[in-house]
Automatic annotation (TrEMBL):
Record bears the keyword Nucleotide-binding: no
Originating gene: Dvir\GJ10566
Protein name: Uncharacterized protein
Organism lineage: Eukaryota, Metazoa, Ecdysozoa, Arthropoda, Hexapoda
Organism: Drosophila virilis (Fruit fly)
PROSITE patterns: PEROXIDASE_3
InterPro entries referenced in this protein's UniProt entry, alphabetically: Haem_peroxidase_animal, Haem_peroxidase_sf, Haem_peroxidase_sf_animal
Pfam families in the cross-refs: An_peroxidase
């Protein structure tokens, strides 16, 4: 085995960071990865960190194959070498209840049912993720993946520390809104069952001070992440484990299990239908809809319109004061971080902006027609922005054209590519591995910018998880929106910002969780096929030795992997896929690109309501399609800030000579007069009502 030494230098800076609103104690520190000459035997991971002016050098010896593993950290939840398969726990998940017969409607249902007219339940909440490659559970049924040697896989936290970095490398090309839109798409398409994804999980596998809960009392769904000794962050506070609760599967459901290995469930519609804005069921929607003028509920505070308030502030947010702002929306994750809450607000305001415009153009429209027409336009604009402005950055324009994800469709021409043979379900490999690679784009410092784009201040991400009230202070909403449109995202690479690597959801504690560790552990929880299996599925060469990964992974990174895993067959998909060199013009290597391309093909072609379809009942007129194709992220931000007057035309891209900030009035707008109901007003010219802003 080749030698490998990695040094992590961690500089602790515990200080008071006073933001412009005069808030918060913040913990920040810096880790740098350095190549060092071989100083110890193989599999020796050395962490050096500087804290409070003192420098510590500690080592973490990892077990090698055949070596004495008695001192290595073991996961007690996996201690039995060949455990009997866990019994199913039926009845823990709500059953999807699609209608038996579908009638063709002009509008999508709230829960996605009847999008497929024969298989009404495709893509609805509480159904299984799709899967490309057979799962790799340790017991063939549901137990988390183990090494092919039968050993436990290396601790997910150790892999996160050793295989991934945390350097701050700004992306010269793309803005923070580019990252943030990705999370919007994620929350629209999937949410694993049984978790909160941002709030403290009620099931505790680790105590609040990071000690393992005894196996005798731990819940069956516990699969805690074991922290290696001498962890550069957590050892400072004695944290031994990170809470992790397994996703519920078809085996936990009365109505999904049809035998075979466990399949995880997702609790939102899989379609790109803005379910995060409108909700995933009629009940959820009724709770956030005004039922007047086609509008969704907004609440006015300090002269602006905001998302309605949660009815359970201390439950839904990390609120210190029950009067703190905490939102209610179509998706429970709405409060998770400020950038997400901004875009949820923007998309909600856009709905009401469209509904009000349609009401003025068509005074005879009732609430339902206004609501459904505004929703349909909002979703179409969102799909257009996602497929034609956002996805090309990630998947590459040429790749998308070649694979028929986008088309050079002129003007108002239709693309009738709906295929009822395509299953629109979100793929487990996509949601649990490939799409999470873009967690690398997250930036831990959020700048507040003036209209002239000068920096007014900044926020530290971990101070504001689940505390969206910061958006309503002063001019913060607009300042952060401009900040996200100006500030570069983090480069899509092996580095994950320290704010999410040690401080995720820290809730005023010195440290929080580690998102990269959660991603890796989730890969094992879901029993995803290995990186090598997935390579083969994607038409790449199957590796027969470590060296065979060298076609896509650098020698230095391969050394890191060798020191962690017993065998090249063990490399988790989440890990291997994130370490590949990118395909030219895309933000992922070939394996993830293959998964992402497949997913977004299915999401388009499996959606009967996709906005480019020319169906007489569900589609738009050619005139309307011409307008929808003008929708842009820049215009969305211009129209739905509190008072944003200028923006660069390509808001996912950084400001430059070819993408300068211009007045909002210079950015094309969708002309809603094309939605005048001609049967009611055959010859009226209403364009005067909707002149450019
Ligand atoms: C500040 C920004 C973000 C934060 C704090 C965040 C945090 C999280 C957390 C805590 C989870 C659940 C982890 C688990 O328990 O397994 C998650 C899941 C996920 N995240 Fe993020 N995320 C962010 C941005 C993004 C972005 C930009 C993308 C993609 C472009 C993304 C894609 C995903 C996906 C696909 C999942 C799985 C969704 C599912 O349940 O099916 N996230 N994220």
């Amino acid at each position: 085995m080749m030698s490998y030494t990695q040094e992590l230098i961690l500089i602790g800076i515990l200080g008071i960071v006073s933001s412009i609103v005069g808030l918060k104690v913040s913990t920040g520190y810096h880790i740098v990865h350095n190549e060092q000459p071989q100083a110890h035997g193989p599999n020796f991971h050395e962490f050096r960190y500087i804290h409070g002016g003192d420098q510590f050098l500690v080592g973490n010896a990892l077990p090698t194959a055949g070596a004495d593993t008695s001192s290595a950290p073991q996961n007690p939840f996996l201690l039995v070498a060949n455990p009997p398969p866990a019994p199913p726990m039926p009845g823990r998940v709500t059953c999807a209840n699609p209608p038996a017969i579908c009638t063709k409607s002009a509008y999508r249902s709230m829960d996605g049912s009847c999008n497929h007219l024969e298989r009404a339940g495709l893509g609805v909440p509480n159904t299984k993720y799709g899967r490309l490659v057979t799962p790799k559970y340790a017991d063939g049924i549901s137990a988390p993946t183990r090494s092919v040697t039968g050993n436990e896989l290396p601790s997910a936290r150790l892999v996160s520390l050793v295989a991934f970095g945390e350097q701050d490398v700004p992306d010269p090309q793309f803005t923070l809104h580019n990252m943030q839109w990705g999370q919007i798409i994620t929350h629209d398409m999937s949410m694993q069952a049984g978790g909160t994804q941002s709030k403290k999980h009620p099931t505790r596998c680790c105590t609040d001070d990071g000690r393992l809960v005894g196996l005798d009392i731990a819940h069956k769904t516990c699969f805690a992440i074991i922290v290696p000794p001498h962890d550069p962050a957590y050892s400072q506070v004695g944290t031994e484990c990170l809470n992790f609760v397994r996703t519920l599967t078809d085996r936990d459901s009365n109505c999904q299990y049809t035998g075979g290995p466990a399949e995880q469930l997702t609790v939102v519609t899989s379609y790109m239908d803005l379910s995060l804005v409108y909700g995933n069921s009629i009940q959820q929607n009724s709770d956030i809809r005004e039922f007047q003028g086609g509008r969704m509920i907004v609440e006015e505070r300090n002269g602006a319109k905001w998302l309605p308030l949660s009815r359970n502030v201390t439950g839904d947010c990390d609120a210190i004061d029950p009067n703190e702002v905490c939102y209610r929306a179509g998706d429970v994750r709405v409060n998770q971080n400020p950038g997400l809450a901004i875009l949820q607000t923007v998309l909600l305001r856009e709905h009401n902006r469209i509904a009000d415009a349609l009401a003025a153009l068509n005074p005879h429209f009732d609430d339902r027609t206004l609501f459904q027409e505004a929703r349909k336009i909002n979703i179409a604009q969102y799909q257009h922005i996602s497929y034609y402005e956002w996805l090309p950055i990630f998947l590459g324009t040429e790749n998308m054209l070649k694979n028929r994800l986008i088309f050079k469709a002129p003007g108002g021409s239709y693309v009738n590519d709906y295929d009822s043979n395509i299953d629109p379900s979100v793929l487990n490999e996509h949601a649990t591995a490939a799409f999470r690679y873009f967690h690398s784009q997250i930036e831990g410092r959020l700048d507040l910018l003036s209209e002239l784009r000068s920096v007014l201040g900044s926020l530290t991400l971990s101070d504001w998880f689940n505390r969206p009230g910061i958006l309503e202070v002063g001019d913060n909403f607009d300042s952060l929106t401009r900040g996200h449109a100006t500030q570069p995202e983090e480069l899509t690479d092996i580095n994950f910002d320290r704010q999410i690597k040690h401080f995720l959801f820290r809730r005023n504690m010195p440290f929080g969780s580690d998102l990269r560790s959660l991603d890796i552990q989730r890969n094992r929880d879901h029993g995803l096929a290995s990186y090598n299996d997935m390579r083969e599925f994607c038409g790449l060469r199957r590796a027969h030795s470590w060296e065979d990964f060298g076609d896509l992974i650098s020698p230095k990174t391969l050394d890191a992997l060798k020191s962690l895993y017993d065998s090249h067959e063990d490399v988790d998909l989440t890990v291997g896929g994130s370490l590949e060199a990118h395909v030219a013009g895309a933000l992922a290597g070939p394996t993830f690109l293959c998964i992402l391309t497949e997913q977004f093909y299915r999401t388009r072609v499996g959606d009967r309501f996709f906005f480019e379809n020319g169906d007489k009942i569900t589609g738009f007129t050619p005139d309307q399609l011409v307008e929808l194709r003008k929708a842009s992220m820049a215009r969305l931000l211009c129209d739905n800030g509190n008072n944003i007057a200028s923006m660069q035309p390509a808001a996912f891209k950084t400001i430059s000579g070819s993408n300068p900030v211009v007045p909002c009035t210079n950015i094309p707008q969708v002309d809603l007069t094309k939605w005048i109901d001609q049967s009611a007003h055959p010859s009226t010219d209403h364009s005067i009502l909707f002149g450019k802003k």
